[in-house]
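Hi everyone,

Forwarding the result from last night's run.
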Amino acid sequence: MKIRRILATAVAVAVTTPAVMLSVTPAFADTKPDTKPAAQTPAKPSVEELEKAVAEAKKAYDAVFAAEKTAYAAVEAAVSDTAPLNVAAKAARQAADDAAAAKSTADEAVTVAQAALDALDEDAAEADRTAAEKALADAKTAAATATTTATTAEAEATAARKLATDAKVAAFTALSKAQDATKEALAAVTAAEAALERAKKEEENQGDGDGDGDGDGEEGECIDEPGLTTVVKGLPSKVTAGTATTFSVRVTNGTDKHLDQVITYAAVHATDKSGAKDIAKYLKLTWSTASSPKWRNVGGDHYIDDAIGALKPGEKADVKLRLDVDAKTPAGQGLTFVAGDYLNEDGTCGLTPDAAVDTFDIEAAPGKPAPKPTPKPSTSTTAPTAGNGVTPQGSGTSVPATTTNSTLAATGSSDATTQLALASGAAVALGAGAMFLVRRRKTGADA
C-alpha cells in the first residue's frame, strides 16, 4: 500500500491572506458530488486558462512589488534627517527653544528691575526713582514681547513637528498597504500555480485505473483521518541564533480503531527578513522520546518512523523535538510543519487532514547587527496540487511594519528604517515552506 500526502500551498499562504482564496475557489472545488443544479456549477478552468492565470498573477505581483519598493523608499525619505519637513521641524524647534530662553532672560530682568526699585529708600532722589520705575516698565514690556514670541514659536514648532509626523505616518501607512498588496498578489500567484498543478495532475491521471497517477491500477489510496491529530506544544514565538529550543508534539489516536504504526512528519523552513533568501540550512531538527531519549536527526524525508509505533484507540504519544539554530543564522522568519500518518498491517493507511503550522521569528546572535532588508521579488515556480488544509497553531506570526504617532514623534533619523520588516517575507515563507509538505511520501513511494 502506498502512502501519499498532497497539501495545498495556496491554503498555506491563506494563513496570512485568507480572503484571496475566495477568488480561486472554483479551482479548488471539492471532489464530492455537487448538489447544486448543473446551471449553477461553475465550469472548471482548463490547463490553458490556468496557465494564463498564473502568468497574469505573476505580472500583477511584479507590479505591486515594485510599488512596495517605492513605498519603502518613501519611508526612508520621510524619516531621513535631510527630509525638508524634518529640517523645518528641527529649525522650528530650535527657534522655539531660543525664544523660551529669551523669555526666561526677560523675566529675570523684570525680577532684577523690581528688586532695584524696591531697594530705594523713601528719601531717594526723585530722578533715581523715576529711572528705576522706567527700567521696570521697560523690562515688563520686553518680557511681554518675549512671552508672545515664545508662545508663537512654540506653536510653530508644534505645527512643524505635526507636519513631519503626519508625513511619516502617511509613508508608513502607504508601505503597510503596499506590503498587504504584495502578500495578496503572492498568495494569488501561489494559488494559481497550485490550481494549475492540480489540473495537470488530473490530466495525467486520466486513463489510470486507480486515479493515483502511477499507472498500476491499484485501489485504496490513503484516506484523511480526522481522528488522528498532532498538536505542537512549547515552541516559542522567537528563537535566537546560536541557541537550541526544545518543544514537543502530541499525537493522539482519536479514532475507534487500532493503528499499527503511527509515523510523525516534521519539517522546518525559514527565510531571511526580506523573504527572498532561504536560510533553512542553518536550522536542524532532532527528536527523542521517553523510550528513546538519545537525540536523533529527523531524516531528509522529514519522517520520524520509529518514535511512536502503535497507538490504541484514544491513546496519546509525545515526541520531543529540538530546534538547533546555528550561530550564523541571520534574522528572519521560520515555520515548523508537523503532521501524522498511519499504516496498518492489513495495508490500510491514513493521514492527518491538516498539518500543524507554527511560525516564529528568528533573531540574529547578540553583537551581530541585522542586515538592512532589501526587498527582492521572489515567486514560487513549482507549486503543489491542492487538496487538504493547513491549520496554523503557532503564536509568533510576522506582521507588516506598523507604527503610531508617539513612535514617530521620537523618530528623527534614518535609523528607524531598520525597524521596517518586509511582511512579504512571511508570505514567501508560508508558500515555500508548504512545499516540504508536498514531498510527503508522494505517490509511488513505498510505505
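Confidence is low (pLDDT under 50) at residues 1-41, 209-220, 376-447.

Cheers,
N.
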